[in-house]
Write a structure and sequence with these properties.
The structure holds two protein chains of two kinds.
Chain A (H helix, E strand, L loop, with lengths): L4 H6 L9 H5 L13 E6 L35 E8 L10 H9 L10 E2 L5 E2 L7 H9 L8 E5 L12 E3 L2 E2 L6 H9 L6 H26 L4 H23 L26 H17 L5 E6 L18 H5 L6 H26 L2 E2 L2 E2 L4 E6 L16 E3 L10 E9 H11 L22
Helix pairs in contact in A: 5-8, 6-7, 8-10
Chain B lengths: L4 H4 L14 H7 L55 E2 L2 H12 L29 H19 L2 H4 L4 H4 L1 H16 L6 H14 L6 H15 L1 H4 E2 L4 E5 L7 E8 L2 H12 L6 H8 L6 H12 L4 H12 L23 H17 L7 H4 L2 E4 L1 H7 L10 E4 L12 H6 L8 H12 L24 H4 L1 H5 L1 H14 L14 E2 L2 E2 L3 E4 L7 E4 L1 H9 L2 H16 L8 H13 L4 H9 L2 H4 E3 L3 H12 L2
Classes of the chains: A alpha/beta, B mainly alpha.
């Protein structure tokens, strides 16, 4: 089903958007079936209302979308909706349920002890292992300019409750919340004279060559516990060097043109939340279309957020408070349902953007898998059972979509392992903590 | 029917009622389960991971008067663990300002500093991710581009007379000493000087190009971004005895002490006087270090740097970002936020550098600092002009920092006050007692503002229900004391038609237990407490050393407290004393085998 260009450009809420690049993006010339697979994690916090989210009745392939998924109707055939998948590993270990949820969501590993307090005062540390996006990037190591991309929309805190992506145990990867910064990283060089860019690269290379030597010299002198800090810095510099080098490599990079430069936002703004989200989604879709990266996360706010949807007129209570509305509090639950519906609308819009990019006989959406998730199943009980996991996109044909799959308490490590296989890491035997991984869910 | 916490819509954002109805009972009462259902799966913990207590029936015992020093223990004082510390954003900005004369504050756009236990300068938490290094790269390029415009002023030599390569080398040595806060090794100078060769193939002019590359390389180096500490062997010799080398500790080098002093007292790099003192070996003794500390505290840079300790500890600067719900605070003007912050900053500055320096006044003072606009906000008459000045407060209403608007606002919600937030704040920040965690999976719902009841009434159930009271008796009675202050810090005597009742009680403290009526009385009660004053010292320790205390530190912290009291609780004197402590001037020595490897590695070409 083709989306009309006007609808695409209008976006949601009737605001006209300009997407010049999508109009002009040429087909990336590749052999049939040889397009790379992409992974996007699409996160929003504090759980949902599963009773309004899960299809009722019907069969695995013939079902109706319930109210909170209604915005995704036009993408129904590209979805896999999960029921009965538990995040069992999140009920283990120190800390409160939000922190445990965040730390285990993409890692499947038990959270580390530490001193970050959850909303109830319980403390924990960072995650105990790598997240799926970082793990796949390391394992599959495609020659893209950016190993991974982490984007945020008001995910501004520097605590476990604002991190889903981990390079490894105790190594959180922060998201970039400012669309202009994302634009600058991704596209600023694009409209430049290639000779200017080449000269800049030569200079940067010479500088980083000198910096790299400092690590070796220091490493010999520092105390053992300091070497780990130094190694983190060194690894980050190596990553920077690789991304600078890959930035020169052309096609598909050279065929891409930069989108319009976004304005500068206050990343903590509530009023601009929706607009920032739109810019981030457009930038991410563009980055994927240009094959600048294949592994990405888009984090809408953070667990325990004090975020009000003021742009929707919800000025009184923030999302976290609303997620805690008792089951008998109809008005608050209705507001929470509105917020969750809005997140579904954002996902639907993002899928529109992916679908609008032709790749061979299909689209970018066909070659992508989007994992939509949250760190809780339900806000007012902090439950991690029956989590709201949803996949969109076929990962190049590895995922059979248009299905409602019901499990009976399958650990979510199994889903993450199945996702690794679908992305091409089919030699992986286990994901995350082995005690919680009992075998991949086959997504094909 | 037994009432339970989810029916009470209790604030979820600080501490919960503990020991309320079990999750099972709550589920039944909520209609989510029937009494015959199986109990929910218990929370399991793997071995070696500390588990949260299942209920909060186990309250902490009341604190004992600490006495951690063993008079029979003559071993050298363990300086505790000390990780190398990445520059914070403020430190980065100040450092490039002092190093290059560049006041553009590039770090304002960097990722926010990771916070831990309330402080944003903790060594273990500060990271350098791929995003960080990109930001450092871009900042160093901008700084170098600005600096090259002043090349002749920054070069310590004449390139035409001395030769460009030689002059660049001289620059690397002198600039490097300041940028990396120590003399560079010959090999390091060589490596940086090779950038002059690299510049030959780049766009001319060659010297300007090389200069920029050198500045960029120096500012992206771990030697700049981290305060590197290696230490040196510590040898002592008593009269008539052979020289002995300390096997458990290394002494910080004079350059390393210089950096510790400057980043503590100025949040910036050492100045010329400190670097000279280090070069001449005059930062080795306690007296030498203390003399520098005293000199530095008279420098204007000390003011924002040391006030920032209070800023972070007491969460003052959070007031800059608060929002208030226009339905409940319709005339709240965001322009008052920086004024509220300035009130507390000016108050603290006066306590540190003014004429009455007893820090007991932090919580007990009968004055604050206002300007005309802020006075108008508070409804105080007789203050004219925009300069801040000291103003007496009504001692029956206000005392010290806890009753200032910034603190009252950051411990409230956008639409109402929160005795739970305020009570927890006092427990954690002022009394240094973390509260016991509540049981997991407890359903909690925050209360709505209600035009008919008072805040106190909404939280009554916490004390009425004996299962909740166990924990909340520690929190709510403290927070209720602040009920005369609304969510923007203004005084009120009635709320929604009810007279404000600000009576409360402190309990489970070392020496501050007792009832009080109102926040001023509570604050004065806290000010008199040894537990509170020890907490001030402990918080300062964490800020100064960039880490939390470990058991090995506790004897030293007792000494710090004793000195603090001896000095009349003069904060600057206390900081000076802190800089003379072993923890400040020594590092743990790595285990012997590592030390050998280190020496071997260094001698390998």
């Amino acid at each position: 089903m083709n989306l009309s260009r006007r609808a695409l450009l209008r976006g949601l809420g009737g605001v006209a958007l300009s997407l010049p690049l999508l109009q002009t993006l040429p087909r990336v010339a590749r052999a049939q079936g040889a397009f790379p697979k992409r992974l996007v994690v699409f996160f929003n916090p504090n759980g949902t209302l599963k009773e309004l989210w899960s299809p009722r009745g019907g069969t695995e392939t013939d079902f109706a979308l319930p109210p909170l998924l209604a915005p995704l109707e036009r993408h129904k055939q590209d979805l896999v909706i999960f029921d009965g998948v538990d995040m069992a590993v999140a009920d283990t270990g120190p800390g409160g349920p939000h922190n445990r949820g965040m730390a285990t969501l993409l890692t499947g590993e038990i959270i580390l002890p530490g001193n970050f307090a959850d909303g109830d005062g319980q403390t924990a540390g960072w995650a105990g292992g790598p997240s799926i996006d970082q793990l796949l990037a390391d394992r599959l190591a495609p020659p893209t300019r950016f190993r991974t991309l982490e984007l945020g929309v008001r995910a501004i805190e520097n605590e476990p409750r604002a991190r889903i992506s981990y390079r490894g145990a105790d190594q959180p990867v922060p998201p970039e919340n400012q669309p202009l910064n994302v634009y600058t990283r991704l596209f600023a060089g694009m409209n430049q004279d290639p000779e200017v860019m080449r000269r800049l690269l030569v200079q940067r290379r010479s500088v980083l060559d000198v910096v790299r030597e400092d690590f070796a010299r220091l490493n010999a002198k520092l105390a053992p516990e300091d070497r780990r800090k130094l190694e983190q810095h060194a690894e980050s510099v190596r990553q920077l060097e690789r991304s600078l080098e890959a930035g020169v490599a052309t096609p598909s990079g050279a065929l891409c043109r930069a989108p319009e430069m976004p304005p500068q936002f206050d990343v903590a703004s509530e009023d601009d939340f929706a607009e920032i989200a739109r810019h981030q989604m457009q930038l991410l879709a563009m980055a994927l279309a240009c094959d600048m990266t294949r592994f990405s996360t888009l984090e809408f706010s953070s667990a325990l957020n004090a975020l009000r949807f003021t742009f929707m007129g919800l000025r009184e209570q923030d999302g976290h408070s609303l997620s805690h509305a008792g089951d008998f509090s109809a008005e608050q639950q209705a507001q929470w349902a509105r917020m969750n519906t809005w997140y579904a609308e954002q996902l639907a819009y993002f899928l529109d953007l992916l679908r609008a990019v032709p790749e061979g006989d299909g689209t970018l959406l066909d070659n992508t898998v989007v994992l939509w998730c949250s760190e809780l199943s339900r806000g007012n009980t902090h439950s991690h059972s029956d989590m709201p996991f949803l996949l969109a996109g076929r990962a190049g044909g590895a995922i059979r979509t248009g299905r409602h799959r019901v499990f009976d308490g399958a650990p979510h490590n199994n889903l993450l392992l199945g996702l690794c296989h679908a992305m091409g890491a089919d030699d992986l035997q286990s994901f995350g903590n082995r005690e919680f991984c009992t075998g991949a869910i086959d997504l094909g | 029917m037994k009432p339970h916490c989810s029916a009470l819509r209790i604030a979820c954002g600080a501490l919960l009622a503990a020991g309320c109805a079990s999750p099972r009972e709550a589920a039944v009462l909520d209609g989510d389960a029937t009494p015959g259902d199986a109990a929910p799966a218990p929370v399991t913990t793997p071995p070696n991971v500390p588990s949260a207590p299942a209920t909060a029936a186990s309250l902490p015992p009341p604190p004992q008067a600490p006495d951690h020093c063993d008079p029979l223990d003559l071993a050298p004082r363990d300086p505790g663990p000390a990780l190398i510390r990445r520059l914070t954003r403020t430190e980065y900005n100040n450092t490039v300002r002092d190093l290059l004369g560049d006041a553009s504050a590039p770090a304002d756009t960097f990722l926010p500093d990771e916070e831990f236990m309330g402080f944003r300068n903790q060594a273990g938490s500060l990271q350098i991710s791929a995003l960080h290094v990109e930001q450092y790269m871009q900042a160093s390029e901008r700084l170098a581009a600005t600096a090259v415009a002043r090349l002749s002023a920054l070069l310590p030599c004449e390139p035409i007379e001395d030769g460009e390569a030689a002059c660049l080398r001289t620059f690397i040595e002198s600039f490097g000493l300041r940028a990396w806060r120590r003399p560079l090794e010959a090999a390091e100078v060589d490596r940086l000087a090779s950038l002059y060769d690299a510049a030959a193939t780049m766009e001319p002019p060659r010297l300007e190009r090389a200069f920029q590359l050198v500045v960029q390389a120096m500012l992206q180096s771990p030697n700049f971004l981290f305060r590197i500490e290696v230490g040196e062997p510590y040898v002592t010799q008593a009269v008539g005895e052979p020289a002995r080398e300390d096997t458990t500790r290394l002494k910080l080098t004079d350059y390393e002490v210089a950096s510790r002093l400057s980043y503590l007292i100025w949040q910036s790099m050492p100045d010329g006087a400190l670097l000279s003192a280090a070069e001449q070996g005059r930062l080795g003794t306690r007296e030498e270090v203390a003399a520098q500390a005293r000199r530095m505290m008279d420098d204007p840079r000390a003011r924002p740097a040391l006030i920032d300790f209070f800023n972070q500890w007491l969460r003052v600067d959070e007031v800059l970002g608060i929002e208030r719900d226009p339905q409940w605070y319709p005339d709240f003007d965001p322009a008052v936020r920086p004024l509220l912050a300035e009130e507390t900053h000016a108050f603290v500055e006066d306590l540190l550098w003014g004429s009455d320096r007893d820090l007991k006044a932090l919580f007990a003072a009968d004055h604050t600092w206002l300007n005309e606009s802020l006075a108008r906000f508070y409804g105080v008459e007789g203050v004219e002009g925009e300069a801040f000045r000291r103003v007496a407060v009504n001692p029956s209403q206000r005392a010290g920092v806890l009753t200032q608007g910034a603190i009252m606002a950051v411990t409230a919600k956008p639409n109402m006050t929160s005795p739970v937030f305020r009570g927890a704040y006092v427990r954690e920040r002022v009394l240094c007692t973390p509260l016991p965690p509540p049981p997991p999976n407890l359903p909690i719902v925050p209360p709505d503002p209600d035009p008919n009841s008072s805040t106190r009434q909404k939280f009554e159930q916490h004390s009425a229900d004996p299962a909740c009271a166990g924990c909340h008796s520690l929190i709510d009675p403290v927070g209720f004391g602040f009920e005369n202050f609304d969510a923007v810090g203004r005084w009120r005597t009635e709320e929604n038609g009810h007279l404000v009742d600000a009576s409360g009680a402190l309990s489970a403290t070392l020496d501050a237990d007792g009832p009080f009526d109102g926040a001023a009385a509570l604050s004065r009660q806290l000010a008199e407490s040894e537990q509170v004053q020890r907490c001030v010292v402990t918080q300062a320790f964490r800020f100064a050393h960039g880490r939390s205390e470990v058991p090995e530190d506790l004897c030293g912290i007792d000494s710090l407290y004793a000195a603090y009291e001896r000095g009349g609780r003069d904060f600057l004197s206390f900081i000076e004393y802190l800089t003379t402590s072993d923890t400040f001037r020594f590092r743990r020595r790595p285990a012997a085998e590592n030390a050998e490897n280190t020496e071997h590695a260094e001698s390998t070409p």
